Amino acid sequence: MNSKTNISVDKIDPNIDGHGLKSTEDDARDEEAGDDWDATDDSEERQRFLRPTSDDEEYAADADAAKAFHARIVAKIFHQRPRWNFFGCLLSIMLAVGVAAIYIIGHTKLNSHHPQVSETPLTSLITDDFMNVTSDVQYLMDFAIIGHAKTATTFIKHWLYEHPQVLIYNQEIHHLLDATRGPAKMVKSMYELGPYDANKRRGYKAPNDIRRPPALSAFRKYWPDTRLVVGLRHPVKWFESYYNFNVRQSQKRRNFTDGEAVMLPAEQMVGRKLPDRVQFHHHLAMLGKTNVTDPKEQALLNGAGSDMQSPNTRKAFAMPYPPAYMRNQVFLYEVSQPFVKENGLARRFAHDFKEFLQLDKPLRPVDNESTLRKIFLKLVGKKKKEERPNFHYAIDICDDKFVELRRELLQVGKEASQWISQFLLNQPSVHVSSPQHFRDLLSTWSIDPCETTTFAHRRAEEQAWECF
After folding, report:
1. Which residues lie closer than 8 Å to 101 by C-beta, 6 or more apart?
2. Rounded to an integer, what distance in angstroms lies between the CA atom of residue 14 and that of residue 50?
3. Is 166 exposed, middle or buried (0-12, 13-18, 19+ CB in 10 A)?
4. In CA terms, which of 41, 244, 248, 408 is 20 to 30 Å from 57?
5. Is 141 exposed, middle or buried (0-12, 13-18, 19+ CB in 10 A)?
6. Cα torsion 232, 238, 241, 242: sign
7. pLDDT tens digit string along 25-78?
């Protein structure tokens, strides 16, 4: 078909009439100009284009012709008649305004908890002697990894460190252990983390802060909107990791006598000698999220009703200050959650954690082995396990001599898991990923892993988690 008679969106002949069809006079000129249609061609397609404009109603009844008719009308609106260009421009402007509005709304939502503040001098925030915080410093700290030691907090820190929207120190910051000058020192450290950017989330890691009243008091007073991240772990597995880590580090931090580390043998660490660090529910109760004066809570917090020992065998729980509600949002995770590939749980965890931290860009799921291997090598290097300092002091928690220790740890786990499930998880400011999966993991804390896990699997797990 000749281009002069074929109506296209790209080029519209100015001789087209009001119905998108050429007049018979135009067809005659086309014939004289050498139209490649034969004059005797009476095909249906040619007859459509030669049909008089007075047959508009019949023409519209033809479905295929109607489609062509509509296409020509659209083409004329945007390309043919100048008076219609106004509407095309108007549509373009409306589209641009809509896109801009969507961006502004999304940007405002992302940064709604961040005031648009200009960078202020440090001297206007704290006194020179670090004795006082003199201004609102909430904007300097968006999140904090405050617990617990040996629950993959180092992994979480490295994971966040790789994110383009996160500013976090590569080392632990322990300023808040000092109740007097600690808050001002923390302000200085967070200030020096980098220029303020409302699109970035600022934080630090100190996995013992959840156990320190001065740190929790500082959050209530200076950083009530900082989001707190707290890791948990099966108490038996936690103890083995905790003990072996301290033994391996003893060459750097402890004295030796006749080749023996100055550390109490693990089998003797029962009763009142059991590390307070494993009492996860005690530390979480200090956040003030629940009514710790409730008799039912007290029974679990103090070990009353234990089927193994009297309540006075272990250290009793006591709030270091009157219970006070902390409005900080809290994200709890069990140490295995970021790595469970089944049913997409690892990817769900990455999404939920990203939402909790109010990040715009997603966190890379760590069910990807290359991602996990990259972070693991950063943490432990390429040395074989037996080449690391004091490896021969490490214990195997499943040895028979630790039966009594495991029994006590399981009792602690039972009480902690019940308190967390019954009293803490129903608080609106406490968040977890995949709640049912999280509860299922807590329910295993009263089960001895040495009796339910194969030796090979447990050894592989220990190797994977020993650095966390």
Report:
1. none
2. 18
3. buried
4. 41
5. buried
6. positive
7. 444 444 444 333 333 444 444 444 334 444 444 444 455 655 565 556 545 554
Separation CA 188–CA 350 (nearest Å)? 31
What's the sign of the alpha-carbon dihedral 429, 430, 432, 438? negative
Peptide bond into 148 cis (omega under 30): yes
Nearest in space to 411 (alpha carbons), one of 333, 328, 313 = 313
The Cα–Cα gap between 438 and 352 comes to 13
Half-sphere exposure for 316 (CA within 13 Å, toward CB) = 7
What is the SS3 assignment for 144?
A: strand
* Tokens, residue 240: 């083995």
Residue type, 305: G
d(CA 457, CA 201): 37
At 352-379, the pLDDT tens digits run 999 999 999 999 887 555 555 566 555 5
pTM exceeds 0.85 for this model: no
